[in-house]
């Protein structure tokens, strides 16, 4: 009796008849033999492979492959052990595809690498009646010296960005100061008002006696009034 996910490849006197199942399968004793095949998706772990990338960096890469049998007859007749054969093919394909890529590509374009490996495996296992549905690169293990170099590179990149941000902040501050200077130049009264505000803030702090240089421009209006008063008195005399 075969389950829903199983098929039985029937051999009669050594010749393949067909695949049967699921359900009750009746065999003729001595004459018939049956080989069971599981049709469920199989998870295959590809152990870490030593790989030299295109830019001569030594890494270890592991992956996982998902596949299932579509044609039970081919899976039994065309290959001695389809699971072992798929496993070996996955290892060689992983080394081949990763060896043709540079390290940056391995780290940043995993989806592209996965798709390429899956495409090759699916094509090569088709004669065995096997369908490779998905491949995922699990880990990329770098040498210690490479990890340290990448950490230094990342730190340098963060420092560079920090300097750029600081420079942009200083540039914006300089622009604001330039705009303020232009406004004060066009309206001198604004500078006088700001000076008076500063005097009031300092006086409110109850500090000891403080000397301030006072611009002569603040007294010009009062001087003009005094001059006009003197002229008026002289005219009356």
TrEMBL record:
Entry's family note: Belongs to the band 7/mec-2 family.
CDD domains hit by this protein: SPFH_eoslipins_u1
Membrane keyword on record: yes
Main location: membrane
Protein name: Protein QmcA
Record domain Band: where: 1-154
N-terminal signal peptide: none
One Gene Ontology CC term in the entry: plasma membrane
Keywords assigned by UniProt, alphabetized: Membrane
Cited PANTHER family: AT06885P-RELATED, BAND 7 PROTEIN-RELATED
Organism of origin: Dissulfuribacter thermophilus
Cellular localization per UniProt: Membrane
Membrane topology of the entry: Single-pass membrane protein
Pfam families, alphabetized: Band_7 (PF01145)
């Amino acid at each position: 009796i075969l389950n829903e996910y199983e098929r039985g490849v029937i051999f009669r006197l050594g010749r393949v008849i067909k695949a049967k199942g699921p359900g009750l399968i009746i065999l003729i004793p001595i004459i018939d033999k049956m080989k069971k095949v599981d049709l469920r998706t199989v998870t295959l772990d590809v152990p870490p492979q030593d790989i030299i990338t295109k830019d001569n960096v030594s890494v270890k890469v592991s992956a996982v492959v998902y596949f299932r049998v579509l044609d039970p007859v081919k899976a039994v007749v065309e290959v001695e052990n389809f699971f072992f054969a798929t496993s070996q093919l996955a290892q060689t394909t992983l080394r081949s595809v990763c060896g043709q890529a540079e390290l940056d590509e391995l780290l940043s374009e995993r989806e592209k690498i996965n798709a390429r490996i899956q495409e090759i495996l699916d094509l090569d296992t088709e004669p065995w009646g096997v369908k490779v549905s998905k491949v995922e690169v699990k880990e990329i293990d770098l040498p210690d010296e490479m990890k340290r170099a990448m950490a230094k590179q990342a730190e340098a990149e963060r420092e560079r960005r920090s300097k750029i941000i600081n420079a942009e902040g200083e540039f914006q501050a300089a622009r604001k100061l330039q705009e303020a200077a232009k406004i004060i130049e066009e309206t001198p009264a604004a500078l006088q008002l700001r000076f008076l505000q500063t005097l009031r803030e300092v006086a409110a702090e109850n500090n000891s006696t403080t000397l301030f240089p006072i611009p002569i421009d603040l007294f010009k209006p009062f001087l003009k009034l005094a001059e006009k008063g003197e002229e008026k008195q002289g005219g009356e005399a």
